[in-house]
Amino acid sequence: MTEVPGTTTSVRTAAERELAEDDSALAGPCRWAMELLTAPELPSEAEMAPSLVPGFLDKYPRGFTATLEEWRALGPFSVTTYQPVAHKGWLVLTDPSGRDFSLTVIIDSTGLVRILHLQPDIFVPEIREWADLDEALRIEGVTSSVLAVRIEEGRHLVLHEKDAHRALPTGSAYKLYLMRALIHAIDNGELDWDDEVVTRPDLRSLPTGDMQELPDGTRVPVRETAHKMIAMSDNTAADLLADKVGREAVERAVVASGHHDPSLLRPFLSSREVFEIGWGANGLRRLWAEGDETVRRELLRRVAAPLTVRGSDLGETVHQIGLDWHMSAYDVFRVLEALVQDGARDATGTVDAILTAYPGILVDRQKWAKAVFKGGSCPGVMMFCWLLEDHSGTPHVLVLQQAADEQKLIGDGQLLRRLGAKVIESGLLEGEKEPTQ
């Protein structure tokens, strides 16, 4: 908020008015975050704690107050952009000199702040044609792929592709296969949406998500667990469901969903297993890298115990040795298409409700009737994909992937997410098409 010289009248930007008038669950935490940056005095950490998830303050050895003071010194700020999307909010703040900063606010399922981060805003070029996107993704040391497809009368019309057949690590995109395995089990009567998973120590993973905070023995309906797995990319939710349906069922779902080389996902890993083998102190990384499928399955039996890795242990990239979920952009496209077909067969509407709970970006509902989204990340890995249906029921798919040997080359995903938003806003998905694929 800026002050008019010589008066006490506050002049709000349009984004500030939008933030002030928003009544969503996310708006309150976003307003609270802005108060931390602009209020005359900072509250104590004890006063802040009730608004934060447990353990939030522990991530700041110098104290969160010291970090906030550094951020406040960069201001005063005005809010120039406010983008609330379900449980995630992004605000672009401008200082008096015109420098832009990006404030990220992410809440958990109870409304507590899980992530609050301020950093210099990144430059994202305008996307008017596909060549602009390819140029924006041309980063030294980073491998990327792009696929844009429109589905018309059952035909797959390729709008644009770049290295779309190349298998790349995808992080949490693996949850799409897990969702398919779950739907299949429900369709076959092996499970029901009202069945429950039960939390236990050997299935507790690291964030993202918040189910790792639940006490042992907590019972959660499969429906709610699946919602958190997709909408919040909850790793513990995914691991609980993987245990419920079984590893072999997920591996069958990989084949059924048309993965070009299912052996890349055998054995099918849980998030906890990737964390434990990749960054644990048990020295299993080399054995995984050198082992065949039989050896790797034995390693998974050895790590079937409570996780010893903390979030702070993650650093060096491990996707190069197969500790991730490798998919081509075409693989991602095929599993998205299959899931939407699953949703069309589901008379209860549960599948669609889960798949569309979090669109990843602000979606123009006048243009798009349905938005299915999944993101994925791991050190050195970033992936975003969308399946958007217009009001005629025509699906449009966009897949963006990045991989690098160093995490710093990838960043926090803001570039890829905002490039995806610009492509979708540009109208390119509705434009001219290349020969049919």
From TrEMBL:
Q: Which GO terms describe its biological process?
A: beta-lactam antibiotic catabolic process; response to antibiotic
Domain Beta-lactamase class A catalytic spans what residues? 163-307
Spans annotated as Disordered: 1-22
InterPro entries in alphabetical order = Beta-lactam/transpept-like, Beta-lactam_cat, Beta-lactam_class-A, ORF_12_N
Q: What Pfam family does this protein match (any one)?
A: Beta-lactamase2
The entry lists its GO molecular-function terms as:
beta-lactamase activity
Per UniProt, residues of the ORF 12 gene product N-terminal domain are 30-113
UniProt lists compositionally biased (Polar residues) regions at: 1-12
PANTHER family in the cross-refs: BETA-LACTAMASE, CONSERVED LIPOPROTEIN LPQF-RELATED
- Protein name per the record: Serine hydrolase
